[in-house]
Amino acid sequence: MMSSAEPAIAVTGLRVVRGAREVLHGLSFEVPKGQITGLLGPSGCGKTTLIRSIVGVQVVAGGEVTVLGRPAGSAELRRLIGYSTQNPAIYRDLSVVENLRYFAAVLGAPKTDPARVLREVGLEGHADQLGGTLSGGQLSRASLAVSLLGSPQLLVLDEPTVGLDPVLRKELWELFGGLAERGVTILVSSHVMDEAARCQRLIMLRDGDILADDSPEGLRARTDTADLEQAFLRLIEERQPA
Ligand SMILES: Nc1ncnc2c1ncn2[C@@H]1O[C@H](COP(=O)(O)OP(=O)(O)OP(=O)(O)O)[C@@H](O)[C@H]1O
């Protein structure tokens, strides 16, 4: 039904007000299918709000968000999107595999899925450990495992590597790369610029506006720097009148 040229996510004129302030000021962009798109920007710039709008849990003040050809928040998207929030939602009093069985049942995912996703995130050795006793990195991977249940077409990950050591971060990015090679679309937020280089596409946010929407190579060329952190800073300088 959908052509492969159709983007996984299309956002037009998205405005969101939280509290008394407008935090997203009319964003428009597309996320291509089968790629890793990074959503980057400093703390408080609106990454989580944008992600919430895409997964359909944010009240929006204006604009349109279309995900896999349907309006964001549509019931049928629930099975097609894997969403991992910043605060891992794992039951502390259930073991890892019990958590996975529970969420698989809620999603109507196959009974073989918990074993598959445990393998994918490398947590087989902790299957019977209680959620409440996992380390930070193990908890992040358990949360990622939940989002992989049911083989979603789109993975939306809000800062999945925050607080992880470099080895674990590298492993997780390799996992993301493998999923993208299998055709899964990944939108991943981060405030760590060195992770930007691992994405095929970058959306840089600042104060609720898009500063750049480009490939890492395009961004480096445009800002004449090899370093994406420098590129980000140069884009900010360009915007500010001298
Ligand atoms: N419930 C709320 N009520 C009022 N303002 C809010 C609320 N939630 C978030 N905000 C504000 O909206 C802005 C965007 O927040 P958001 O969580 O989207 O940023 P972020 O880029 O994800 O930040 P971080 O990287 O620190 O998680 C911030 O200025 C924040 O203070």
Q: Any overview of this molecule?
A:
The protein has 242 residues and is an alpha/beta fold. The chain folds into two domains: 32-55 and 154-241, Rossmann fold; 82-151. 32% of the residues lie in helices and 25% in strands. It contains seven helices and ten strands. It has a six-stranded mixed beta sheet with strand order 6-7-8-3-9-10, with helices on both faces. Strands 2-1-4-5 form a four-stranded antiparallel beta sheet, with helices on one face. Strand 1 (9-18) and strand 2 (21-31) form a beta hairpin. Helix 2 (96-107) packs across helix 3, helix 3 (113-120) crosses helix 4 (136-148) and helix 6 (216-223) packs across helix 7. The radius of gyration is 18 Å and the shape is globular. The N and C termini lie far apart (50 Å). The model has no long low-confidence stretch (mean pLDDT 91). Bound molecules: adenosine-5'-triphosphate (ATP). Adenosine-5'-triphosphate (ATP) is lined by residues 18-19, 23, 41, 43-49, 191. Residues 9-232 form the ABC transporter domain. One of its GO terms (molecular function) is ATP hydrolysis activity. It comes from Herbidospora galbida. This is ABC transporter ATP-binding protein. Keywords: ATP-binding, Nucleotide-binding.
Indicate the CATH topology of the largest domain.
Rossmann fold
Major beta-sheet overview: 6 strands, mixed
CATH architecture of the largest domain: 3-Layer(aba) Sandwich
Residue share in helix: 25-40%
Q: Class of the largest domain in CATH?
A: Alpha Beta
β content, as a range? 15-25%
Bound molecules: adenosine-5'-triphosphate
CATH homology superfamily of the largest domain = P-loop containing nucleotide triphosphate hydrolases
Structural class assignment: alpha/beta
Number of strands: 10
Shape: globular
- End-to-end Cα distance: 50 Å
Mean pLDDT: 91
Pfam families: ABC_tran
Keywords: ATP-binding, Nucleotide-binding
Domain ABC transporter: 9-232
Protein name: ABC transporter ATP-binding protein
